[in-house]
Design brief:
Length: 258
């Protein structure tokens, strides 16, 4: 019906290319019909094959979050044992096996893992094999309303993704809004447009256990760096990545299209 309603402007938001070719012709037809196409990052547009030929009507509007939900989280005491946090699906592209092997090299650091997925049993076995069971805690699936409590008990967030399946990483924004620095990998996606290495956190090469261990150790040992980066992260979210800003950018686009 959308294709028939030529008099009605159409704006499409594209989150990722269709994996199946079965509906690709329909996706192309909808994109041709659209007055504008919204993507969350410049990298998203660069990686998408589906959007080839539609670049001139593509608008980058980053995802936004409700920053107020994370604004009041207190920092952990300076004398508390340092703790890192991972939140996400336990799937291969998240790179949790790399994180566990890096953690093995940072003996004073603890790690909370929040999430479920098919890699869970293998990761728990690897945790035992690396003698990390006393420093790694698996929380399983966690209600969304309780995630700020998990964030409050951590000093920084790690997103060790190893493929471009990690297109943006909303959890990075949430950690930054909570005043926590982040460690991310150099996957060529929107993640690199969120975390600013050296300012809001650290960035390491993909699949690099040694570099990730060094980054973990850097943040584990330096609470003042964590505080400075955390403040910068919160300011960056408030400037570029709030839900309010996302809504305003969409409304401005709709007005231009109309």
């Amino acid at each position: 019906s959308l294709l028939r309603s030529r008099s009605t402007p159409l704006v499409v938001t594209q989150h990722q290319d269709l994996r199946s070719s079965r509906y690709r012709f329909l996706a192309r037809a909808v994109l041709r019909r659209a007055s504008a196409v919204v993507v969350p990052s410049r990298a998203h547009l660069a990686l998408s094959q589906e959007l080839e030929g539609f670049e001139n009507k593509t608008e980058v509007i980053p995802f936004g979050i409700d920053e107020s939900r994370w604004a009041e989280l207190p920092r952990r005491p300076l004398d508390a044992p340092p703790k890192a946090l991972f939140i996400g699906r336990l799937v291969k592209f998240k790179g949790l096996d790399v994180l566990l092997r890096a953690l093995e090299r940072v003996p004073d650091l603890r790690l909370d893992i929040v999430g479920v997925g098919p890699e869970g049993p293998r990761l728990k076995t690897l945790t035992q094999a690396l003698a990390l069971a006393d420093r790694v805690k698996f929380f399983g699936e966690y209600p969304d309303d309780d995630l700020p409590r998990r964030m409050a008990e951590a000093d920084f967030l790690v997103l060790p993704s190893v493929t471009v399946d990690e297109m943006f990483g909303l959890v990075v924004l949430e950690a930054m809004a909570a005043g926590r620095p982040v460690i991310t990998t150099a996957v060529p996606t929107g993640v690199r447009e969120v975390n600013q290495p050296g300012e809001t956190g650290l960035e390491v090469p993909v699949h690099d256990v040694r570099s990730l261990a060094e980054a973990l150790d850097t943040l584990a040992r330096d609470p003042f760096k964590r505080e400075k980066m955390g403040d910068a992260g919160r300011a960056r979210v408030e400037k570029f990545f709030t839900r309010q800003l996302m809504a305003e950018r969409h409304i401005a686009l709709y007005e231009r299209v109309i």
